[in-house]
Amino acid sequence: MGTAAEHGGGPEGEYRIARLRERLAGDELAELGVQVEQRGTAVLLTGTVPTAAHRDEIVRLAREELTGLVVRADLAVVCADAPDRFEELP
User: What is the reported pTM?
Assistant: First the structure.
């Protein structure tokens, strides 16, 4: 089955996770609302993003950066734009 280091865990995995966090905070995505947690040989992304395209790009970036680790995403798409129509109440 192998050790955590063989599957991307350990110090190298921690370094790659830290590098992903930096990329998410400083990249054109600037997603400070996304948390990245290592759980064994898997990484969990949680938080909110403004669009589905942002979510997809973050997951792609995480999988690229964290090759060898399982990346799971629980990212909610939350749009903060003003409504484009009035809400009709009964």
Answer: 0.70
